Amino acid sequence: MAGNPAGKVAVVTGAASGIGRACAVRLARDGARVAVLDLNGGEAEGVAEEIRAAGGTALSATVDVADRANIDQALADVRERLGPVAILVNSAGKEGFKRFLDITIESWTSILTVNLTGTFHCCQAVVPDMVEAGWGRIVNISSSSAHSGQPYMTHYVASKAGVMGFTKALALELGPAGITVNTIPPGFIDTPMTRRNEERGFFGSTVDELAARTPVRRAGLPEDIAAACSFLVSEEAGYITGQVIGVNGGRNT
Ligand SMILES: NC(=O)c1ccc[n+]([C@@H]2O[C@H](COP(=O)([O-])OP(=O)(O)OC[C@H]3O[C@@H](n4cnc5c(N)ncnc54)[C@H](O)[C@@H]3O)[C@@H](O)[C@H]2O)c1
């Protein structure tokens, strides 16, 4: 299901690692000109180099999605070097794992700010380009934990449930402008975030054990999310908006 964003400019946040990285690489392979944004600028540049080495077009920038001025500055550079933004994938995310009574207001605010407010900032910063063009595609990466709940992650789960509601509301508002907005809630994808959580014992089980209990009998790969993302940003997905497209191996049906 090759997307057809050939020549269009795609911005991917959290693109230095895991799901965001896979989306950036996939969209570049589909023909998009990609801006690889991440807090970790060194790793982001590594991904951009990888895309260029494969014949694609990419640039990187060190961006904190919690910082609107930082985002606006980076996007001004993206517009100058690549052109107006047509596609946005919000994958930057921060996890947390704490008993409810031990969650500090600082930690609550930090997770809500990166995961939910960061998504708001990035959408608001690129939507004018899409409105001007009469075409746009936004994919927000939420989490299957917002469907299932997850103990010790009330802050994280609340932020991701917020992303789902935000996506639905924004889709209704932007539909008439030719812009679709959807969310993919990944479930159990083998990324550095997942391996960090395994090491910390957050799952009470290993990734391999969880994979064996997953209906499709494997952990998801970042490329599984990238494939869904590639479709959602394509021309032919234009009638799909405001949707929650689960990619979870059947764990949450
Ligand atoms: N891996 C899973 O199973 C899973 C499940 C559900 C949801 N998710 C979500 O998918 C997204 C990607 O997660 P991943 O597993 O690829 O994790 P990851 O840790 O591999 O990648 C996350 C990236 O986001 C970047 N980032 C963090 N805070 C940032 C900020 N303030 N500004 C800019 N970049 C920032 C990190 O530097 C990192 O490169 C996250 O939103 C996560 O919550 C992942």
From TrEMBL:
PANTHER family: 3-OXOACYL-(ACYL-CARRIER-PROTEIN) REDUCTASE, 3-OXOACYL-[ACYL-CARRIER-PROTEIN] REDUCTASE FABG. GO terms for biological process: monocarboxylic acid metabolic process. It comes from Parafrankia irregularis. Keywords: Oxidoreductase. Residues 8-187 form the Ketoreductase domain. Belongs to the short-chain dehydrogenases/reductases (SDR) family. This is NAD(P)-dependent dehydrogenase, short-chain alcohol dehydrogenase family. GO terms for molecular function: oxidoreductase activity. InterPro entries: KR_dom (IPR057326), NAD(P)-bd_dom_sf (IPR036291), Sc_DH/Rdtase_CS (IPR020904), SDR (IPR050259), SDR_fam (IPR002347).
